[in-house]
Fold:
Amino acid sequence: MSARARLVYERWTDPVAGDILKDGDVDLIKLDLAAPDEKSWAALESAHGYQVATRTDVAGYAHGAQWLAGPALVQRCEKLLAVCSAGAGYDVIDVDACTRAGIAVCNNSGPGAEAVAEHALGFMLDLAKKITAADRTLRAGPLRDRLVLRGTQLMGKTLGVIGLGAIGGRLVELCAPFGMEILVFDPYLDQVNAQAHGARAVTLTEVLERSDFVQVTCPLTSETEGLIGRAQFAAMKPTAFFITTARGLVHDEAALLDALASGGIAGAGLDVFHEEPPRHDNPLLQLDNVVATPHTAGITIEAAHDIAVATATQWRTIFDGGMPPRLLNPDVWPRYSDRFEDTFGFRPSATTALEKGGRTR
Structure:
């Protein structure tokens, strides 16, 4: 081939990714976000692949957003063939800008779904049973009346899921023993597929009005940004709980604060915020009916390992000339294939490298 593959990454979720990739014909270049900009740009401008830094990775650095895969980076890095996000979320990548430039965009949905779904279920149990509320009360001083900590049960309640992807689907499975009615809002899901998950596809309004637990598990896109605002919180039952493990910008934080403070909804479980990590004085964190975690739903030992393996395996598939298994912009394939062939001297195939038995380069 006419070039050796160069992959830039900020960090792996587990070192096993580097172990898998170092045995291949790929140059690995670590992006140091604290280094001078010129050094980072030099690395990226020579790269064929970019494992994109996450928003929380770059939050502490001035001008950190420049390392996200937006139009400016795409335009400047002319050799880029593919960009990938570490997990299921891909809001760190401008998919349209990449598609226009002939760049394949991938995520890693699936490997971390168990961790996030379990975390979401944990929020449900915590809020319903008032576990964190009880803990706070006990630590604050003598308990006068334990009946003020009376909770509720999941059995027979209604769960509303917004976005039935890998995470939402697994959450539905985990809730099966509780005999819950499952309502789903997902414009890309038909009734047949919803029923296959034991759920019923309905409108967003019906999910909000009928659910005891509203779980947001959709990605952040132009369609979902600001999806849950004042009108949506007002539609929820005052006994309902709002839970999100998606991205902060899917919901309106000020509207959520008002709904919680006014008793419009019973409580919230939040793993994501508009600003991450959230400031310690964020008013949502001052409310007793909020349980919060700092975007750690997908951070488990097992998920970190599985995501790293999936990440490295996908990059090997890309550079071996196969179609990545989690390609988000399939319309890019013809132009991507032309650019790949111009760079490496052979044309990629929609058949994965694994199916072909690998390619010697």
Remarks:
- DSSP finds 15 helices and twelve strands in the chain.
- The longest helix spans residues 301-319.
- Residues 57-63, 352-361 have pLDDT under 50 and may be disordered.
